[in-house]
Amino acid sequence: MGTPPIQPEINIGTLGHVDNGKSTLVQAMTGVWTARHSEELRRGITIRIGYADAQFLKCPSHRGAAAYTAKKKCPICGEEAKFLRNVSFIDCPGHHSLMVTMLSGAALMDGALFVVAADAKFPQAQDREHLLAAEMAGIKKMIIVQNKIDVVDRKRAIENMKEIQKFIKGRPTEKDPIIPVSAQHGVNIDLLIESIEKELPTPKRNPSATPQMYALRSFDINKPGTKAEGLRGGVVGGSIVQGAFKRDDKIEIRPGLRVESGGKTSFKPIYAEIRSLYVSDGEVKEVGPGGLVGLGTSLCPSVVKADSLVGSIIGKEGDLPPVLDKVALDVELFEKAVGTEELVAVQKIRTNEPLVLNVSTAVTSGVVTSAREHIVEIALKRPICAAQNFKAAISRRIGDSWRLIGYGTFK
Questions:
Q1: DSSP code of 21?
Q2: pTM: predicted TM-score of the whole model, two decimal places
């Protein structure tokens, strides 16, 4: 019998501007290029949320950063390295037009690598946006990665380091480590892994809590032409935020299935059974928080195809938060709209204004029905499943893009 699959213990996000080399950095640690979509490969940027897992190990014969590796054998001496833990990377798009996608990924992160390019002046527009989004999402553990040190001279590398230090001064990230690397050539990857092990510990989990999972993907795994008797149920992928799921568990998915009747649209909860559970290494019988997982279900493949269940919450029957088509938020607005080169001042939210909300992995839009002081009420075009005290990122249309202007807490 082979080694049983090991579930990743922690979700680590990669954040930063579109050209900073996030996907290259993840590839340097995992061997996986996360931009798999054909349009991503053509354009050379991440469009969807990417993901890849890695094993971190430590050679017993070395000290300091040189001992840390993502390979089973030490690249220096060839000795078998000691396993430390499995980690899962969530690679988020940096382009401003894909900010809502990045916010969905941020909801699943236990910590983050904030990737900066040494050959560009810092901060760039999306750097500000991602950093504020990370703070808003409650990501408290972060490492700043100064990438592309191979394409600048020493003077520019030092200038870039000072730009970073100036920008983070007085922010929650002020004391976070800054690690210079060349992802392209694998320089200082051992130092980065050492820093991850020291600065981004595995969060404390409560396996006995009521299980909940945020859906980041949903898809049909059957090949075209598969006969009815050979069809397999739809798959939902995402991250478990609390509790644990087992094979044969009965689950509920909210908001659920879109239903059109009498010219009106409604959503009905979906009920299913877990037929299989997968982590990156293979199939398991039980899975808990940490890393990205796939639930093979009893659902008809047509229900899950084309990421139709993204933004849903999965849990045990009757244990999920309510489905809301109207929300009231206690709003905190930023002084400036992040992501804009000219740093546009954020005006108060107005009645009848359209807004976009990101709640966990869900993205929805709505129209403001009431705006008074810090309390804003919004009628949603697509309902969400959310509990009191959930946070929502708020974006406003500025120019040709939706820009992050603040966040709100559900009342």
A1: -
A2: 0.84
